[in-house]
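Researcher: I'm comparing several assemblies side by side, and this is the next one on my list. It has 234 residues spread over two chains. Same procedure as the others: predict the full complex and return the structure.
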Amino acid sequence: MKITKTQAGQTITYVVSGRLDTVTAPDLGKEIDAVTPDIKELVLDFDGLEYISSAGIRTVLTAQKKMNKQGVLKLRHVCPAVLDVFELTGFADILTIEK
Amino acid sequence: MATLTVPAQTEQVDILQDLLHQQLDETGCSMAIALQLELVVEEAFVNIATHAYTQPGGTATFTCEVDRTARQIMLRFKDQGIPFDPLQSPDPDTTLKADERKIGGLGIYLIKKTMDKCEYVYEQGSNILTAWKKY
């Protein structure tokens, strides 16, 4: 899994590609834990992310709960296979998934 | 059909995925279904690695069989850990808002929702979870 971080003002974008699974999800989790309270917008750009398991969903949920307190979380470029898993688990309704 | 026994440690999941892909090779199974099967392999195996044993040294046996006539794939997971029927676990409430959703409990739910049929037995000291999916 590859994570590329960019920041513009109070917006942080992580481009996450590869697989978000039990082995790799904690790496993204650490990044998200380090996001400071002044950040108003967190964007997870899943361009190139081809697979997500419950471990990945946990990480995204943790990010959603965190950003609910300080701003917004947005997901972008979610591929059909990953969207499928979000829909099965009811997370498609909770998350802000942009086209 | 192929069977593999590995230590019940999370990092071993990639070896199981390799076996799955070897079995799927030249079956014409779609990418979408292959990804769903990978998800089931990860969720089932990680549950064993995380919860089945109270001491280190436990193992998990993974079996994958493709019935090309019926166009059906069977995945089987066997461990000698604590007796546990994952199919009895209550489903998470998928209608709750983000702040209300619990962090865990999704793995088994994903297996049940993804596969066509699941079955659990406890036999001769082993938990055996079997799941089938048509491709």
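Model: For your comparison table: The first strand of chain B starts at residue 2 and ends at 7.
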